[in-house]
Design goal:
single chain; about 120 residues; 3-stranded antiparallel beta sheet; 5 helices
Length: about 120
Amino acid sequence: MEFPFTLPRGYVDGDGNVHREGVMRLATARDELVPLKDQRVQENPAYLSVVLLGRLIPRLGTLTDVHAGIVEGMFAADLAFLQRFYEKINTDGTSLATTVCPECRHEFQLDMGSRLGE
């Protein structure tokens, strides 16, 4: 199962192209275990999310070979967005989050994969 998302900033490739639209698939147990054997993760546990996300994003813009090196080159805001998005879809099985309007207290659902803030 895949979930579409839009990065807040976008990954800029070597040619200056900005890639914002992508999809993330649900993680399997294997997806979460394999990165633990990765040398980069063993040397720096903070690198785990970079390797994991590189396994779970099959497409970003026109890029179809997304890997840890691409995730590593993303802006911090995009990495933080992807970490939250990963947590949401793998915990709840959906990209929808329930929230409440601070003014009228009306409860509604927000699609985390949409273009937040636009």
